[in-house]
Amino acid sequence: MDHPEIRIMVYGDSNILARFSNFQETFSYKLQKYAAETLGKKIEVVNAGVAGYGPDQCLIKFEREADRFKPQLVILGIFADNDFGDIIRNRLFEFDSQGRLVRNTDPIIPGGDLARISGFKGLASSLLIVRATKKIFGVTNEKKAAEAPEMKSEKNVDEKIQKLISLNDQEFSIYKASQPRVLSLANDHYDMDVALFPKSSAAAEKIRLMDAILTRADRFARTKNIKFLVLIQPSQIDLTTNGDISYKHLGKFPEYSRTNLTKPIEEICVRNGINYINLFKVFLKNGPDHLYRFKDNHWSDEGQDLAAKTTLEYLIAQNLVK
Predict the structure, then answer these.
(1) CA 192 to chain centroid
(2) Running DSSP on this structure, what letter comes out for residue 10?
(3) Using CB atoms within 10 A of its CB, is residue 57 exposed (0-12), middle (13-18) or buried (19+)?
(4) How many angstroms separate the CA atoms of 124 and 105, rounded?
(5) Cα 284–chain centre separation
(6) How many other CB atoms are there within 10 angstroms of residue 255's CB atom?
(7) What's the count of helices (H) and strands (E) in the chain, helices before strands?
(8) Is there a contact between 46 and 9 (Cβ–Cβ < 8 Å)?
(9) What does the alpha-carbon distance between residue 120 and residue 90 come to, in Å, rounded to a whole number?
(10) DSSP line for 45-97
(11) Taking the CB of residue 282, how many other CB atoms lie within 10 A of it?
């Protein structure tokens, strides 16, 4: 698009990248389409999503690209499923002795999926990550879903929950001990600690880091005279029973709430005066089952469409697009 009147950058993970959808069905394209039709202006929405990225990596990418693209608005998609854990696992940022957020300069060890990629250096491109993921796992999510049994026994579900709890504990222990970082962009998983034990030290630290990263992104945007918006996408686990684990299984934990992953992000935005959209209630009242890909946890074409319409309504109401 030549010389757009408004340029919007959308940062996030594989949900924003949306390689599982046709280009015309992605959130970024739909937002551009609806905004251009409604406002009658030349609008460009740049899809800056990268598979496997967390808020920390998106922040770094935003800071690197702001002067090059000069957007009027930046939207940061936060996936309230694994994005709290991404910050802990990546440890790209940490707090110094005075509690200030600083870049971690320790070396990164490529692990898991990335360790098997010949010549991997630093943060891989989205195309490399997608190709590597397909090569490693060998099947698409649709094929996995088709091969999965119709029903998982309660015992199997309980075992899976406990494994995720243990994995979260291990990751937090590594973070607290400042042990070597092992970066893997295809091993993200649901943040069981924040969801089930919101008063735990692990949950508190993850929320603290998320707060610092979002406020840094908002402050940086202000220095560049860029409007900034956080888009909170809820997890399929908290909204549907489509997956192997759902909110019904997690309900046996007394501190669990279906909003334990979305609410802290909303509270961070409110506390710091950051523009935000929390899609939890919107998705809940619009039949969330069809807003996600079956047993996939990525939003479906319908979910992206609803999110784009909701986002445009907010942008117009808050006068964020001129």
Answers:
(1) 15
(2) E
(3) buried
(4) 18
(5) 18
(6) 12
(7) 14, 9
(8) yes
(9) 16
(10) EEE---TT--HHHHHHHHHHHHHHH--SEEEEEEEETTHHHHHHHH--EEE-T
(11) 17
Q: CA-to-CA distance for 300 and 18, rounded, in angstroms?
A: 9
Q: Which of 263, 269, 206 is nearest to 234 (CA)?
A: 263
Q: Taking the model in full, what pTM does it have?
A: 0.86
pLDDT digits (tens, 9 = 90+) for 128-166: 333 333 333 333 444 444 444 444 477 899 999 999 999
Class of domain 6-317: alpha beta
Average pLDDT over residues 214-219: 98
101/88 Cα distance (integer angstroms) = 13
Strand partners, 93: 103
For the chain, the structural domain boundaries read: 6-317
Q: What is the pLDDT of residue 42?
A: 94
Residue bearing tokens 């919007």: 8
CA-based nearest residue to 36, from 316, 279, 317: 316
Task: Give the residue, 92 or 182, on which the prediction is more confident.
Answer: 92
Joined together, the tokens standing for residue 317 give 């109401």
Q: What is the C-alpha to C-alpha distance for residues 94 and 91, in angstroms, rounded to an integer?
A: 6
Tell me which DSSP letter residue 117 carries. S
Tokens at 245, concatenated: 């684990």
What does R_g of the chain's alpha carbons equal in angstroms? 19
To the nearest 10°, report the CA torsion of 178, 174, 168, 282: 20
Q: Provide the token pair at 228.
A: 């900034």
pLDDT in tens, 190-206: 999 999 999 999 999 99
Longest dimension (CA), the chain: 58
Beta bridge partners of 95: 101
